[in-house]
Amino acid sequence: MKKLVVSIAAGAGVLLAAASLSLAGSKRTWTAALTAGQESPNQVVKTPAAHGQFKATLSGNTLKWTLTFAKLSGPATAAHIHMAARGKSGGVVVPLCGPCTGGQTGSTAVSRSVIAAFNKHELYVNVDTAKNPDGEIRGQIAAG
Predict the structure, then answer these.
(1) Separation of alpha carbons 23 and 46, rounded Å
(2) Environment class of residue 123 by beta-carbon count within 10 Å: exposed (0-12), middle (13-18) or buried (19+)?
(3) What angle do CA 103, 105, 111 make, to 5 degrees?
(4) Whole-model pTM?
(5) CA 109 to chain centre
(6) pLDDT tens digits, residue range 107-141?
(7) Which domains does the chain have, with CATH numbers?
(8) For the chain, does the N or the C end have fewer beta carbons within 10 angstroms?
(9) 3-state DSSP call for residue 90?
């Protein structure tokens, strides 16, 4: 009976290790639709027509992303990924660009805490302008 228990435990350990490796190598897609209405705190200069799209793939700890936007109050001075729940403000965890242009792409390594936040939907992207330095458009990142 002891040999059977040891064999089952060893087999379970191998399965868990294999599952862990496959998750580490898996590729996930993330998106966010950015609008002025989602920005928190509210903009200094209202830009209701401003909008954007963030698309990314996360493979291991490498994030490859594309950011597009239009109808901002002026040139985009910066864009970041922040850590906070929908409707809350949070600190920058991944700088994307600055200054930014529509159709910007990039790739960066992210930490385990950022990966965990992706999985909990606790990240958002926002784009800053001179008139709205704390963010003009924002979108919560979700699997997609």
Answers:
(1) 42
(2) buried
(3) 140
(4) 0.81
(5) 12
(6) 999 999 999 999 899 999 999 999 999 999 999 99
(7) 27-143 (2.60.40.200)
(8) N
(9) coil
